[in-house]
Amino acid sequence: MRVIRVFVEGPLSPGQRLTLPEDAAAHLVRVLRLQAGDECVLFNGDGHDYAARITAAGKRGVDAEVLSARAVDNESPLRITLLQGIARGDKMDWILQKATELGIHAVAPVHSERSEVKLEGERAGKRVAHWRSVVVSACEQCGRARVPSLAAPQPLRAAMADLPDVPRYLLDPEAGQAIATLSSLPGGCVLAVGPEGGWSPRDREVLRTSGFTGLRLGPRILRTETAGIAAIAALQGLFGDLR
After folding, report:
1. What is the dihedral of CA 38, 137, 45, 102, to 10 degrees?
2. 181, burial (CB in 10 Å: exposed 0-12, middle 13-18, buried 19+)
3. CA-CA-CA-CA torsion for 31, 35, 38, 44, nearest 10 degrees?
4. For strand 61-71 and strand 17-19, is the pairing parallel, antiparallel, or unpaired?
5. What is the pLDDT of residues 118-166, one digit of tens each?
């Protein structure tokens, strides 16, 4: 039977009574038809699942009581940061959803010279809020109790300062080094994937001077929504928990 998991902002503890967020309440009652007395699982990103029971469900909202807490240990030992050139529309949603399911640690969306999507001000804020909801929903589905970090969109050059000090790779079908030849990644890595038009020569120079080296996934050129996901899966199979 599928476990119904709901993300809740803020601290949770056994014995606590709370009113669930409006979106979560609507999903539980209107879509899943849960009623008072039914149980679900709450999580807030602290690494625990909290068994809960619905105590009231009506037009005014859904109340629940936290029954117990259980530590969840399903995070990948391989900490991958995806440096993703912002893709159009649903492609970005798909990338975030699948990367989350595959155990990504962090995502840094970036504007590049060939990006077709430019996000600034209020529009950027709304898009980031939407992207976070995609990531949270993926965590609800796949059982993760920690939510991957999602940075605000920024220019490629500016994003370099915020990346972790780990090996950095630029996916490139013409690179000399292949994923299969990597010996180890004890501290994780950063993967750079360009937007639909790829990285421009100037983008590549920014990446190269910031410590990125080429890495070949295979002989074919993959689309932006495929490349990062395929590379994450391959690395998780070699050094993570997809074994």
Report:
1. 120
2. exposed
3. 60
4. antiparallel
5. 666 667 688 889 999 999 999 999 999 999 999 999 999 999 999 999 9
The torsion angles phi and psi of 212, rounded to 5 degrees, stand at: -85, 135
Q: Look at strands 39-43 and 48-58 and give their pairing.
A: antiparallel
Q: Are 11 and 44 in contact (CB under 8 A)?
A: yes
CA distance linking residue 195 with residue 224, whole number of Å: 6
In the chain, the domains with their CATH numbers are 5-71 (2.40.240.20), 80-239 (3.40.1280.10)
Q: What is the pLDDT of residue 48?
A: 98
pTM higher than the cut 0.90: yes
DSSP three-state, residue 61? strand
Give the C-alpha separation, 160 to 97, whole Å: 24
**Nearest C-alpha neighbor of 51 from the set 66, 32, 35:** 66
Whether 159 contacts 209, CB under 8 Å: no
Which tens digit of pLDDT belongs to each residue from 35-56? Answer: 899 999 999 999 999 999 999 9
What single-letter DSSP state applies at residue 169? E
